[in-house]
Amino acid sequence: MERLERDVVVIGAGATGLTAAVRLQQAGHSVVVLEARDRVGGRLWSDHIDGQLYEIGGQWVSPDQTVLLETLDELGLDTYARYREGESVYIGADGAPKRFTGDIFPANEHTRSEIERMIGVLDELVQQTDPAAPWEQPRAAEFDHISFKAWLEQQCDDAEARANIALFIADAMLTKPAHSFSLLQALLMAASAGSFSHLVDADFILDKRVIGGLQQVPLKLAEQLRAGDLRLSQPVRRIKWSTAALAADAVDGEVVEVVTDELVVNARRVIVAVPPNLYNRIEYAPNLPRLRQQLQQHQSLGLVIKVHATYETAFWREDGLSATAFSPYQIVHEAYDNTNYGESRGTLVGFISDEKADAVFQMPAEERKRSILNSLASYYGPQALEPVVYYESDWAAEEWTQGAYAASFDLGGLTRYGALQLEPVGPLRFGSSDLAAEGYQHVDGAIRVGRRLAAETADTLARQSMSERSAHGTFVEGVIA
Ligand code: FDA
To answer: Which residues does the record give as FAD binding sites (predicted)?
Structure first.
């Protein structure tokens, strides 16, 4: 086993872990990043499939994601707008495609007015919800104990309006059925993006992409680390720390041992920058405290298949369509023009969430592809049936993610455990986009969490150095140093 010593071990080379590692290194601390996969980026990943570049994971940037936008600027990465000229398509309960412009679907008058009313109701509740502490919402307990679906049924008598409002949070964001998460969890999702209206507005929430792909953020961050400070293919198996570290303010003499199959790293602090559903892939000695072990069982990732289909031309554009398409009744509940910057071929991207994804995963691959393409054809016509390249991003099959897009709590979990998830355990701190406030579940949130974890860790290390030096009685420039 190779042995290393560092101030901080960062577990996970996603946007969170790499942001934290680069910041700590810039602050003068020695760091090593241990990554299970043979690549950096985690849920950000661009790859060529049959010669076509696809963003298999995260890709879009919205205007409220100011920390991500700042990071893109720092890293010298340029963005371009998602193609959105022309009409959108909506398929209602009758199965007929209808063209429309704007945000509100072309349903009947009552359904439309109910959708608009519910957006207003949700916007007001979101205003009262701090994404950094949703458990402090004035009606937090009540809102965390009712499913989003049940609450919508209480509020609105129009099934199509309910299906559409549910779609924005359930299928499109948390990628879980609306009966499986609470109203409070839905409010957190919307509050993290500024408002519920923002989630409804595809031109806002899916505004821009990065030329060359969003995975360049972690790739460029990784380039900033010193040689040897990023170790790939190193799944962390075990973290051992002293029980004294569990006492409040116990900073002296804490030494942590982080073990992979090939490495043993001794450090003073550890940042576990992996999604919460994977915390239990690591053995902790001693065990994590009782409530931490409990809380981790109440957070789970959703499930979505991101489907990419490339055609010789963006044929929908000639037909006056933007390719923006929605339907709570289709297998593919939302789809967009996802043509890469400067390419002449046209690419569509579509999403299949939660129980619909379960259903298509029951099918043999060819039948699944046919069903998905049929759903795309319902929006764009028969030309959608014959892509030249086709690919399904299947994150649930990825050992080091196990779902998409991110984690959320089950009913009641947010008020019961939400605040606790942010607490350190001795020398360990946990974080990822799944624990973000602004930018929750997004790359912006990952970077915010990475920055926060780096600042908190640097602060603890500085206090530890001060107390160690004070124990040795050295004074420099009037302060204990
Ligand atoms: P992330 O999961 O990326 O990183 C954790 C890392 O830890 C991984 O590299 C993993 O391999 C590693 N790891 C796990 N266990 C380990 C262990 N025991 N030892 C060592 N390493 C370990 N966001 C957005 O802003 N815009 C978008 O358009 C989208 N769209 C989107 C689509 C799809 C299909 C997905 C899957 C996700 C998105 N997202 C998104 C979400 C976004 O990609 C995500 O929130 C962030 O990339 C998460 O970054 P983190 O670093 O927090 O976790």
So the answer is: 16, 35-36, 236
For residue 136, the CA-to-ligand 1 centroid distance in Å is 27
CATH topology of domain 2-44+215-288+425-471: FAD/NAD(P)-binding domain (3.50.50)
Tell me whether domains 2-44+215-288+425-471 and 46-57+79-102+304-402 share a fold: no
Euclidean distance between CA atoms 218 and 18, whole angstroms: 7
Instruction: Check: CB of residue 305 under 8 Å from CB of residue 358.
Output: no
Rounded to the nearest angstrom, the distance between the alpha carbon of 77 and the centre of ligand 1 is: 19
Looking at the domain 46-57+79-102+304-402, which fold is it? Answer: Polyamine Oxidase; Chain A, domain 2 (3.90.660)
Q: How many helices (H) and strands (E) does the chain have?
A: 16, 25
Which tens digits make up the pLDDT trace of 405-455? 999 999 999 999 999 999 999 999 999 999 999 999 999 999 999 999 999
pLDDT tens by residue, 354-381: 999 999 999 999 999 999 999 999 999 9
Instruction: Write the CB contacts of 427 (distance below 8 Å, at least 6 apart in sequence).
Output: 241, 245, 254, 256, 267, 268, 269, 270
